[in-house]
Design brief:
Elements (H helix, E strand, L loop, with lengths): L1 E9 L2 E4 L9 E4 L2 H10 L5 E5 H6 L5 H10 L4 E4 L5 H9 L4 E4 L1 H5 L1 H10 L4 E8 L2 E4 L4 E2 L4 H8 L7 E5 L11 H10 L4 E4 L5 H8 L6 E6 L1 H5 L4 H8 L4
Parallel strand pairs: 1-4, 1-12, 4-5, 5-6, 6-7, 7-10, 10-11, 11-12
Antiparallel strand pairs: 1-2, 2-3, 7-8, 8-9
Helix pairs in contact: 1-3, 9-11
């Protein structure tokens, strides 16, 4: 299981939100590039970067800053937030982003997801963010009628690298991950699951390791790293990862 530090960018700064809500951000750094270098120095094998401005607006807003991070570290970067066209995917990948996470558009447009997976094999992940069991879109501001399991079932066989599953009610709250929902989703699909949201301690990571065999391939850790509740080096030691 891979431990993946998160860098959420809003207005050019490294922030964390509570339950994905705009206006709840806590600023942890004015320099996301320096933060990425820190996680790399501490042994991270992959960094998850979210363009929050892009997620809320529907088009990438921190594209140049994300590419600056790509140029500043040697480890792979996974980019998310407002990426809704083939051209936007291609722009990121051509300039060094290793993985692109798609969300809002793929929920309602399977042909777009199929096209993206064919054009960029092994580079496309899907973010499924849920509240009360239903998948959210448009920067977590609108709920659909579909569950993560229903959507994941429709995505089997397309060559998706991973599904990043977030229980938005847990995100940024340091209350622990929704283990039951993560396990249920992982067992329901052939696509590897990366858990996100709610990590508050090393014990939470140990709990996810206990269901790794169900198909949990990684965990994204955000606020807990920035508050010091989890030290990246210690988390990596649980999985045997890192430098």
């Amino acid at each position: 299981m891979v431990i993946i530090p998160a860098i959420d960018i809003k207005d050019g700064r490294c922030v964390r939100l509570q339950q994905g809500r705009a206006g709840t951000e806590s600023v942890y750094s004015e320099d996301p590039v320096a933060v990425a270098r820190r996680w790399e120095a501490e042994g991270a094998e992959l960094i998850h970067i979210v363009d929050l401005d892009g997620a809320f607006s529907g088009t990438p807003k921190n594209h140049d800053l994300i590419l600056e991070i790509v140029r500043s570290v040697k480890i792979p970067i996974q980019a998310a937030g407002g990426i809704r066209t083939i051209d936007e995917i291609g722009s990121y990948i051509r300039q060094g982003v290793s993985r692109v996470v798609l969300g809002t558009r793929v929920v309602s447009d399977r042909s777009f997801l199929e096209t993206a997976c064919r054009a960029f094999p092994g580079r496309i992940s899907v973010g499924l963010d849920t509240r009360a069991g239903k998948v959210l879109v448009k920067g977590w501001t609108e709920a659909t009628e579909q569950s993560a399991i229903e959507l994941a079932d429709q995505m089997n066989g397309l060559g998706i690298l991973a599904i990043i599953f977030t229980d938005v009610q847990r995100d940024g709250m340091l209350q622990g991950p929704n283990l039951d929902a993560i396990r249920e989703l992982a067992r329901s699909t052939e696509i590897p699951i990366i858990a996100s949201g709610g990590i508050s301690s090393l014990d939470d990571i140990r709990s996810l390791l206990s269901i790794e065999s169900s198909g949990v391939a990684g965990v994204i850790v955000g606020k807990a790293l920035y508050t010091g509740a989890v030290k990246l080096t210690e988390a990596l030691s649980l999985t045997g990862g890192g430098a």
